[in-house]
Hints:
The structure holds two protein chains of two kinds. Chain A is built from 13 helices and two strands.
Amino acid sequence: MYLFKYILKRLLLLIVTFFIIMTICFVLVKLLPTAPPTMFGKDTELILRRRVLLHQMYYDEATGEYYDTPIMEQYVYFLKYAFKGDFGVSEQLFVGQDVWSVFKQRVPFTVAVNVYSIILSIPLGIALGILAAIKKNTWIDHVISTGVMIVVSVPSFIYGFLIQYLLCFKLGWFPPIMDATNGPFSWTGFSTMLPASLCLSFGSIAGFARYTRAELTEVLTSEYLLLARTKGLTRTQATVRHALRNAMVPIFPMILGEFIGILGGSLILEGMFGIPGVGALYVNSVQSTPPDYNFFILLSSFYMLIGLVAGVIVDISYGIIDPRIRMGAR
Amino acid sequence: MENTQFDKYQSIPSEKFVFAERGDLAHDNKIETKPRSYLRDAFSRFCKNKGSVVAAIIVLILFLYAIFGPLFIPKSFTEAYATDKELVYYKNLRPRIKLFDGTGFWDGTEKRTGVNVNTLYEIRSMEQERGQNVLSYEHARFETDKVVYDLHVNSYYAMEVLEVTVLLETYQAMMAWQDENDVQLILPAVNNNLSAGYTANKNLWYVCDRKGQAITDDSGELVPAYITYSTALARLDGYTSSKRVAGDPYLAGDTVNGWSYAKRTGSSESNYNYVIRVNPYYYFMYKYGFEPAFAFGTEAHGYDIFTRLASGARFSILFALAIAVINMFIGAIYGAIEGYYGGVLDLMMERFSDILSALPSMVITVLLNLHLSGTVGPVMALLYAFVLTGWIGMASTVRMQFYRFKNQEYVLAARTLGASDWRVMWKHIFPNSLGTIITSSVLVIPGVIFSETSLTYLGIINLDSPTQASIGAMLSAGQSQLTTFPHIILFPALFLALLEISFNLFGNGLRDAFNPTLRGSEG
């Protein structure tokens, strides 16, 4: 019951936070000068019609001209239409195309590249962490810890260059740019997306390894493990049955959080490896002058929501997984 | 002497002996050793951590490079970036350190694989015309149905010949310069009726067809396509220098077949122009006054990467330092108020920072850049963006420290003595948490550098100008030429990686050193 209330409270807080920052974001975007419809050439009519439909502009019959609607009015209608899945049309990147449908087409690519990288990084990261913890203060541990330190520090796009240069150009194992013709979940999609997933997984592997090592070393020195050994369990038995299970308690929520949070991580790498995902879309929408505001609002909200949801899920899963936290809070 | 003393003690009567009380032995000894201050202690602990010390030294070296790097290239060259149109001829030069000349490593050598025979002839002809050691390795192999060549070419000597149009005054100055330095700056003029490929490629001084394929004589030698002194106009080249290309018939006294060194254009004496071919290597020396040898090579505009990177690094480091200091101030004040007063105020302030921290940095940066870069410039807009949410982490650190210390006895004592809240906060609690605050500030710096380079890499913020570079923009420019000129991206990427790794190591070492609970644990 307590947990249910806690979840409810967190969700409510999430929604409130989300609305506040979305409102700030919306107002800040709308305070910027809008692109004049005349700059769209043959699409002027279409853009105008859509803007009027979404109450972003209105037609003044007295002067025969189009004017911007007041921002708060725009916001009310924005919310109303957003719930129906209408975020307006793209005005810069894909002129005249519906923003939401373009977004929907591209989400699978971003999800795919992140899922592949997570699939790569969970077993590798945890295995390295366990190895480092068991062989603590030996050369194996030092090598792993140093590697983790380096990987965590270096920005992911630098591995991007390295992988692109070595694997794609020098060795020719992968094409430098993803082949998106068969979609993200086909074999060609998977194999050509692999370099990007690899880059993305480096950071996660290092994160998992570091965290697992820290947790496991703490558990391995605890007294109940000594008890387990005294009881007659072998070292392997004690480690697998007692230490690992307890170490997993804080690691599992981290995996969940990483799983959601990493969606925001491919922002830079998508453009680099030619993956037509939302990250690349976001960057492109910002790079065009003036930015493609409808995309910008939709994708900003998307990324904000991801960040918030990841945080909430991590916190809730701690409570669900670990009875100590659940009981202690009561 | 000694004996008498001994005797004195020997003759103590037994009744003088009494049992010692326990209290008599316990003396309070004055502490002889010097007290160790907190900072000294931290410093000695930091020095024990070898990795961090090495990292600190590397950080220092990188800082020194960022500060003094630009001094290694004469200002005459870097100041020409904005105006000099001829700079682009010196683009994409390979890294070269003069010390390594001739070793094949870091001496400007470029590996060209699979080139055709025309290119081979062109490169060989450069050696012949300029007398410089262009080609250091040559290997022929079969590729499907034709012969191709793998070459090692010195990119500094293999630049394309420049055709410049100058006034008589400059022309004479150039001749004087080449006489003085004993090098062949000015090359003979080419007759483009004989060398059909000359219009497209100024290197082709020999008889060739439109595609640049050499038409050799019977013995397989290249036939010069130079303008000779056979016509009246050719004799008016005004060439007074004693330096002439090897093989020039003029050297043997043949004044009719001697080669002409300039094409004179213009109708009257006042507007005579001389079109001359110059060796780009010596032309560089003539113009900028030093031998071209760029340690990190040059990029697509002809800018020297070594100094560009230093200027970008200087910006990144200064920017990150500024952000760290500003965030430390704001965060310290905010966190101190939160932590010290607690209660409802703390709750409200926490909610505020929670909401702010949910804003993705990308959104903030883009919006602030759009709103403010017109009025305050992109650098300040970026600064505001980083400050807007950057202080939150610092505030929560300080808040935690204040929660830890505010109920300690010495704080209570200070308060009993009538110290104001302000005094308790800054005189009693703050100095105790200073170590933690400083170390987390240091750890902010690599994070800021990372975000700043990502933003400039993506082109969301554009800070580039001929005088100012940014590491991110250098990376993205290098990425587009990753296959052809990998050196352009190599050095910025290496610098950034090294800076990030060593800064993080240094920061972690500092954090451990300032943590007194770890005292003695390192053994």
